[in-house]
């Protein structure tokens, strides 16, 4: 709502500045031929601009004080202060135009109001970016918390003696993206590489925990990022499945 009021007032203020600029400065137009009409136009444009530009600092300060702190940093505060300063300077220019017997500062008032629009847009974009970054951080923390809770549940299930079920779950959600028992995917068929680990489960767990490139015909295996309990469960699962002739 504050943004709507701000842009309505800013739009009317820049309309007044545009009246001055396009009547007195655009393509060298002057006021000598019709001084009375020029005076009316000058008073109208400066009066319109002055009437609405005074409210812009109020709206901007209200926006700053009512917006959550996460949307602001020192840069946003400096930009908001610059916007207020430029708006006040534009107000003084309109006052000077009204007090002058001849139209003055037409181009300056127009440029200053364009600066107000530019600064307001930058303030909005930067404050939204800050707020979105805070939201992304919170979502990331929440995701990490849920992941830690899930891993804790898996560890508890493993400790309770239900490892095979957990191993199957880990294999289905992590390992099957690259591996099958009897089929070549990104990695080699497990049926062809697991036999060497049948008598050395510790070596298999060490490899899953910290994979190293062994076969030049396949890309290196990325670290799956499994917990020690998950590594133990999936190692036991794949070896049991191999012993059963799994495919």
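Sequence proposed for the structure above (247 residues):
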């Amino acid at each position: 709502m504050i943004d709507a009021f701000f842009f309505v007032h800013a739009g009317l203020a820049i309309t007044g500045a545009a009246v001055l600029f396009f009547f007195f400065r655009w393509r060298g137009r002057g006021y000598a031929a019709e001084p009375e009409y020029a005076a009316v136009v000058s008073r109208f444009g400066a009066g319109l601009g002055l009437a609405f530009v005074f409210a812009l600092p109020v709206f901007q300060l209200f926006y700053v004080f009512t917006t959550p702190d996460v949307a602001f940093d020192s840069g946003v505060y400096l930009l908001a202060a610059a916007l207020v300063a430029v708006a006040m300077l534009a107000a003084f220019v309109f006052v000077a135009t009204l007090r002058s017997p001849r139209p003055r500062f037409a181009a300056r008032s127009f440029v200053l109001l364009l600066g107000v629009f530019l600064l307001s847009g930058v303030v909005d974009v930067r404050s939204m970016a800050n707020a979105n970054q805070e939201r992304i951080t919170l979502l990331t923390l929440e995701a990490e918390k849920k992941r830690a809770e899930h891993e804790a549940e898996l560890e508890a299930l493993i400790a309770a003696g239900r490892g095979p079920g957990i191993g199957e779950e880990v294999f289905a959600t992590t390992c099957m993206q690259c591996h099958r028992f009897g089929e070549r995917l990104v990695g080699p068929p497990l049926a062809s590489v697991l036999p060497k680990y049948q008598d050395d489960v510790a070596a298999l767990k060490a490899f899953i925990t910290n994979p190293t490139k062994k076969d030049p015909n396949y890309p290196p295996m990325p670290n799956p990022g499994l917990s020690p309990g998950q590594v133990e469960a999936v190692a036991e699962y794949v070896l049991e499945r191999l012993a059963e002739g799994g495919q």
